[in-house]
Please model this.
Amino acid sequence: GAGVSQSPSNKVTEKGKDVELRCDPISGHTALYWYRQSLGQGLEFLIYFQGNSAPDKSGLPSDRFSAERTGGSVSTLTIQRTQQEDSAVYLCASSLGVGETQYFGPGTRLLVL
Amino acid sequence: GENVEQHPSTLSVQEGDSAVIKCTYSDSASNYFPWYKQELGKRPQLIIDIRSNVGEKKDQRIAVTLNKTAKHFSLHITETQPEDSAVYFCAALSGYSTLTFGKGTMLLVSP
Model:
């Protein structure tokens, strides 16, 4: 079946602009995660959705970052007033449930000029 | 929260040699430990995982060992091949929530 998909694959924006990144999880997966990977670095947890529960936002680096998950499926990560340090690859993952294997999407490469 | 340390950061081996990557974790409640392989420009792909109720798991040339007492786990790749070259990440799941990842090991297998 289809894996996790993300769009856009690449995004170039100017400092101060807002950006929206989209994630389509694997059908039937109740858990969805966003991570950030800076060049040559590991994966930094941002936010986690599980079913209809309130999301775990503990990894969001500032209040410029927010995320929604509509209808328990598609998720959008929004970065407001982008800064150059926001440049990174944003990865989405989904899993059947908590503690299950996470499957990653291809990522969105964000470059803030 | 959980903290995962991964060593070495880079590892160079000759084709056919074995490679070992080690990780330690801090939260004794962690119960799931996956390993991901990430090729350049690609998404992380799960290659093997282990849960805290077993000490070792093998899948062809890849094996993972877990020592819960010492809070460390290791990835073993035997008979390495050039296509094994990639960045490998370990991770630990605690609190029934999110994975904490190590910083990665860049493995280079030379022909």
Observations:
- The two ends of chain B are 41 Å apart (CA to CA).
- The mean pLDDT of chain B is 94.
- Chain B touches chain A through 21 residues (CB under 8 Å).
